[in-house]
Amino acid sequence: VSKPRSSSSPKCSFPRAVDAGHRAVIFDRFRGVQDVVVGEGTHFLIPWVQKPIIFDCRSRPRNVPVITGSKDLQNVNITLRILFRPVTAQLPRIFTSIGEDYDERVLPSITTEILKSVVARFDAGELITQRELVSRQVSEDLTERAATFGLILDDVSLTHLTFGKEFTEAVEMKQVAQQEAERARFIVEKAEQQKKAAVISAEGDSKAAELIANSLATAGDGLIELRKLEAAEDIAYQLSRSRNITYLPSAAAKRKKKIIGISSRRKWKFGEWRDFFLSWMGNQIKVNGGDTRTEIPPL
């Protein structure tokens, strides 16, 4: 940040101009610093007797880094950015009591004091979650303190906020532990859901077995006969789609051909296989006297 410098010299020119955004304080060799602040424009001065001291009254930025401690004794690195300018009417007092480099003499000290005072009221977690509140409190206290030195603060912002290495590592370890706890809880919930699903499935199987037993007790072997017919139909469908099956390679082929009335020299269709199995199972029931436990002979 550039320092406001006096543009006067022992050999003062006549007349003297003040640029835009600047103000001048007149030093008289006989009467000292004048209380009147000279504004922008061209002004006439008495050579050798009067000397102008020009101040830049525009807003200028300044960054102030501070290392301080929080309420829970954690080291905090804070950088504060300030836009400041002097009060025009108080320029003679500023020049007399502080000097032209007033920003170097005032801002670092009062900024450090205010930041240490405000940050000490919050712990490390609150400095992150309540950063807006911290910034507002710093701005209010710093603006009030700077006004006693004749300075106006147009803006105060917290641009940088970090913690010590140990605290950062502790926060990372805490986050990892929380993620592992969440993962473990998910595994437990998943196991409980699987347990409930297994119980429901077992109850369903038990109910199905009970219904089948009741059906067998009520209808006798009719359900078994129905399942055999469905199995025969499925086998016939599978054999009809096979390219390698064209005839029945067994001694009972002639008898079976008589039942369905087709020749074994051509490939059987699905309907022919189905009719064959249904007819064969009907004959087996008649021969065995209603005993349906007779197995189908291999083809």
UniProtKB/TrEMBL annotation:
Residues 14-175 form the Band domain. InterPro entries: Band_7, Band_7/SPFH_dom_sf, Prohibitin. Keywords: Cell membrane, Coiled coil, DNA synthesis, Membrane, Mitochondrion, Mitochondrion inner membrane. CDD domains: SPFH_prohibitin. It is found in: Cell membrane; Mitochondrion inner membrane. GO terms for molecular function: complement component C3a binding; complement component C3b binding; histone deacetylase binding; protein heterodimerization activity; proteinase activated receptor binding; transcription corepressor activity. SUPFAM superfamilies: Band 7/SPFH domain. GO terms for biological process: antiviral innate immune response; B cell activation; cellular response to interleukin-6; DNA biosynthetic process; epigenetic regulation of gene expression; host-mediated perturbation of viral RNA genome replication; mitochondrion organization; negative regulation of androgen receptor signaling pathway. One of its GO terms (cellular component) is early endosome. Belongs to the prohibitin family. In the plasma membrane, cooperates with CD86 to mediate CD86-signaling in B lymphocytes that regulates the level of IgG1 produced through the activation of distal signaling intermediates. Upon CD40 engagement, required to activate NF-kappa-B signaling pathway via phospholipase C and protein kinase C activation. The mitochondrial prohibitin complex consists of two subunits (PHB1 and PHB2), assembled into a membrane-associated ring-shaped supercomplex of approximately 1 mDa. This is Prohibitin. It comes from Serinus canaria.
